Amino acid sequence: MNGFRVLIVIVTAILRHSSEAHHYLCARVRRSSGVMSILMLLFLRCITQPAAAADFDALFGYTQVPQADISVFPQWLDVLEKQLVEQASVSDCRAEHILTRCDLQSWRDYLDDIRHLPRDEQLAAVNRFANEQKYVLDIENYGLEDYWAAPDLFLENGGDCEDYVIVKLFSLRWLGWPLADMRLVVVQDTNLRMAHAVLAVADAADVWILDNLVSRIVPERTIVHYAPVYSISERQWWLHLPRS
Question: Can you give the pLDDT of all 244 residues of the chain as single tens digits?
């Protein structure tokens, strides 16, 4: 064991100065065998497990209360259903369609182009892509005060805050992000005194907020002017209440 301790000291000194050394040593140890090699793999952290995502329980300093009946959000269920249809017809991109699938195909092509990026860069790219789309009120687009648009409608016509959230959520889902780590969050903006919607995405480090009003992605704990009202995942929703 003395030899192993010495090796640990040497390896630690090397890794402090070079990430390339870490990859090299992991590769060398993987080609070895025996108990010592297993110990070295664990020490070097060459064997990794997916990090657990942060939870949403303290989102914006509020507590969440799970609710069972997602049917109270028929527009959300409608978006989910439409998205399944869009996935089946994404290859159908003909100009004579009233709602052309070409915008949808361009969106998928863009997502495929950024699939190789690290997760933080994927977040930034998805946020930037969505935020570049035009902002249009639902009353102007559809003659309704509130309408939740599926991605193809949003990419074709523009949309308002929840439509930005929806296209970001489905973009990340297409890139392989777990739905359990994402929430559409409806908040009250206490500065502007109006309702708003943002996407909250959890990873091992924090819960990040993707907002069509802000170009940067920031941790939710740094935002003080949003009071969450409710949040929605694929088949569940939560009320958010002030902590007592």
Answer: 444 343 444 444 444 444 444 444 555 544 554 444 444 444 444 434 444 556 788 999 999 999 988 889 999 888 888 876 665 455 455 444 433 456 678 888 999 999 999 999 999 999 999 999 999 999 999 999 999 998 889 999 999 999 999 999 999 999 999 988 999 999 999 999 999 999 999 988 899 999 999 999 999 999 999 999 999 988 889 999 998 7
Q: Say how many C-beta atoms besides its own lie within 10 A of residue 161's C-beta.
A: 20
Let me know if 173 is exposed, middle or buried by CB neighbors in 10 A (0-12, 13-18, 19+). middle
Is 162 inside a domain boundary? yes
Distance in angstroms (rounded) separating the CA atoms of residues 17 and 111: 35
Is the residue at 53 inside a domain?
no
Considering its fold, how many domains does the chain have in total?
A: 2
Tell me, yes or no, whether 25 and 72 share the same domain: no
Query: Is 110 in the same domain as 14?
Result: no
Q: Which domain holds residue 169?
A: 59-242
